[in-house]
Amino acid sequence: MSNLQTIGQQAQASAQTLSLLSASEKNHLLAAMADALEKAAETILAANQQDLAAAKAKETSQTMLDRLLLTEQRITEMANGIREVAQLPDPIGAVDKMWRNADDLLIGQQRVPLGVIGIIYEARPNVTTDAASLCFKSGNAVILRGGKEAFHSNQVLVTILQEALAANGHSRHAIQFIEDTSHETAAELMRLTDYLDVLIPRGGAGLIRRVKETATVPVIETGTGNNHIYIDQAAQLPMALAIVTNAKTQRPSVCNAIETILVHEAVAAEFLPMVEKQFAEQVELRGDQKALAFLNNAQLATEEDWATEFLDYILAIKVVASLEEAIAHINRYNTKHSEAIITDDYFASQRFLKEVDAAAVYVNASTRFTDGFMFGFGAEIGISTQKLHARGPMGLEALTSTKYIIYGEGQIRK
């Protein structure tokens, strides 16, 4: 039996126990985990420094270093995120609906845990605590496999969470961490069908593609974010500029940042110089031929640029002749994550909402809001870009399934 199979067995046993805990018992354990994180801040930061030093030695980009970095404030935010999950209603045991059928059976649909959830992710240590707390609150055991970039940070974080569980009389196997970061072990996890109920990958396009191609375990695809903002001819341009600036520069290394803006030709001459001035010496601009006519310091965009999630201070710009052209471009190149239109034209906004195929579609707001915390979920396990089971930011309910409960009074089928 491999080490991963042992981990799977331990997770299955723990999931059975975890599914029986009351909401108050789970909340008590979550509070203990949050407190333990804050008390161990120095230990966590020391481990994170090891990861940062290794990343800098490899000349990792600044945006990627930001994803990896932990600070005292971020540790506090991680702990508070766990506390917020504890405050959320417990979905387990909730009955979504009940009805009587023609035979007078009382039929209900009740929320139950998925069971054992595997998470494969890259260089964001906060995913460790978000995933652990959401899985725990929803009654699921979790097996975490982080990337080698954040190995020391993730290892310490999971150890702290496990010790908090053990100190409060619960199995540490509810939250487990795979210490082998090899591709071979990752591939084995993707095929751990005897123990995993679902696998959720979080990371770049390469990771998502590898999981889809390799996994025999059911996968919930959390996608990359090649996101767009369309500035309509009826847009308020100062508002559009503020939204574009936020969506591109507040944190360009995350999946809900934008990579391309589409600008209606009727406002391009006024809006694009505003963009260039706003982003001077901060964002590299790549425009199509029409856009270059209004920009002084931009290079010609390539076909590859339209399909790229830059995760950096790079913005592609295309001038379009109509709403129809904008929608067609988005549906061709997007990753079905987050898309936005800036307009005061109600009918244009409604058409955009209806025709754009994405998990989150905005009118007059930044795509940076596509986030479990911002949606009121406390945290998120990921942002699903597929259409089966769950779509968009995945909170507690997305980590549950249902079973039918049926009450009878001696009925038999004739």
From TrEMBL:
PROSITE patterns: PROA. GO terms for biological process: L-proline biosynthetic process. One of its GO terms (cellular component) is cytoplasm. It is found in: Cytoplasm. It is an enzyme of class 1 (oxidoreductase). Pathway: Amino-acid biosynthesis; L-proline biosynthesis; L-glutamate 5-semialdehyde from L-glutamate: step 2/2. It comes from the Bacteria. CDD domains: ALDH_F18-19_ProA-GPR (cd07079). InterPro entries: Ald_DH/histidinol_DH (IPR016161), Ald_DH_C (IPR016163), Ald_DH_N (IPR016162), Aldehyde_DH_dom (IPR015590), G-glutamylP_reductase_CS (IPR020593), Glu-5-SA_DH (IPR012134), GPR_dom (IPR000965). Pfam families: Aldedh (PF00171). GO terms for molecular function: glutamate-5-semialdehyde dehydrogenase activity; NADP binding. Residues 8-280 form the Aldehyde dehydrogenase domain. Its EC number is 1.2.1.41. It catalyses: L-glutamate 5-semialdehyde + phosphate + NADP(+) = L-glutamyl 5-phosphate + NADPH + H(+). Its main location: cytoplasm. Keywords: Amino-acid biosynthesis, Cytoplasm, NADP, Oxidoreductase, Proline biosynthesis. Belongs to the gamma-glutamyl phosphate reductase family. NCBIfam families: PRK00197.1, proA. Catalyzes the NADPH-dependent reduction of L-glutamate 5-phosphate into L-glutamate 5-semialdehyde and phosphate. The product spontaneously undergoes cyclization to form 1-pyrroline-5-carboxylate. This is Gamma-glutamyl phosphate reductase. It comes from Enterococcus casseliflavus EC20.
